């Protein structure tokens, strides 16, 4: 198992996956002829090359070994992504301030230290700053709190 | 057109109040973000792309160029003061710059690096002015097949200079090319890889990809690392001693020359320039033992070289439309969003934009010296802001920026998705730069490839029959073969070892 949990082997797998995925999704695109290429010609060519490169990378990684992949820390990437997704969902439905509060709260949890007072301070400062800059300064067509302003 | 006439046109464009303001704004914002630890020029430009979209093309490019230089200056400042390089090209500045700071010569190191950078930037700008026209004229003779081969060369050269496995970097280029194809096929109108999402029919927007891959991924990696900080450092007198000036002057000159040369190479750029300049100084020095302990040459030469290279790396982008590194790929992306197809036509069709931008590069460099030295105290204060405040704030600005592109939360979602992808790339040791180059060049390359094949009636030999194309392809092949040679492979690995 150790042999396969290397950076090179896994990236090879990733390229294979992208290659296969692109072939599958693009299967209905007409390939055409070299003179009159259809929309699928270049995508298919690129997918096949990517697939081949992925296979080569995998084989080389297994035969000659490579750096083991570090254990990922799930917390930062999960929380940051979650924060952005929540922001996207809330921004138009609830407005700038609610989306901002949720994003800052969640992404502050991603770091090592979390002090509620500091986070609240950060939220207050950023709320004022964003309202002044984006709503009043740049006149962006956004609502600060949906239904109120 | 004569040189002076061109420059005159550039000056009239660059010295308008509006463009001067945007140049200044770009420099300020660039420095601001560049000073923040862990965020280099690529991430800075990526995250700030949205704010330039609503400006006229010339102003937006002037601002982006300002951000680029600003971020570089900011990076040097953090290297010297707290031993944190903001970007790869300032890594070498840390070696001696931070040592100078510990000896109480931080002020001198900062001013030498600022003056050296300004000098190098000026020389770099002059080189662009001289070479832009001949190169553009040459590029106008290129047919579709030649262009296709030129892009292949540019992509391969960029790969060679990426650290880590070359095969992986090449695969990343192809992945980027593939992502570049998403959207409506220009020739047939067929939807490709759009999954029936209407927002994707114009292709994946460039800005969210760049923001996610470079901005978000970088923030996440920094959050994991728990950034260490040195204590507050006293800047001291900004004036270098006479001895320091005597030693720094020739180093700046050598660094400028070396950096200018290396910057033009496809795949070259500030990092390569800075490293080579440092090595050169160490070899030429009568007292190589001083390097790493606060040798003033070790600050002057790499700082001059990275700025010179930063300037001259604009040459292939402006004249041929081929980005030589990730920053230039972002610039190409920004131009395309503004409706300008980078390439030889830019200079002939939009001379005001072209020359205005070049002149404003010089203005930007001058502004940075003025902004940076007297305001150094303010930047130092910024360094003491903890990352736990900064990271959420940067994320927030990214999200609002992404939304503002087209007033759509779909773009914010894209930022999140590409953030995850970027994080996977980092964890698997896959470089983002080749991906970005492939992404930017993908659509054009397909276009040229299809046109070339159509003109040759489907005969792929066209790429070998045209002399320009053949020459470019031979160079590409040579590069690849060279990289496969064991001795060069080893030297390359060692070079990147030092960097990491």
UniProtKB/TrEMBL annotation, chain A:
Transmembrane segments: 9-26, 46-65, 77-107, 119-138
Alphabetical list of Pfam families matching this protein: TctB
Residue ranges the record marks as coiled coil: none
Keywords from the named record: Membrane, Transmembrane, Transmembrane helix
Domain DUF1468: 10-141
InterPro entries xref list: DUF1468 (IPR009936)
Name of protein: Tripartite tricarboxylate transporter TctB family protein
Species assigned in the record: Reyranella aquatilis
UniProtKB/TrEMBL annotation, chain B:
One Pfam family hit: TctA
Residues in DUF112 domain copies: 20-437
Ranges annotated as spanning the membrane: 20-53, 108-132, 169-186, 320-341, 353-375, 387-405, 417-442, 463-485
Keyword Zinc: no
Keyword Magnesium: no
Source domain of life: Bacteria
Protein keywords: Membrane, Transmembrane, Transmembrane helix
InterPro entries: DUF112_TM (IPR002823)
This protein's name: Tripartite tricarboxylate transporter permease
UniProt organism field: Reyranella aquatilis
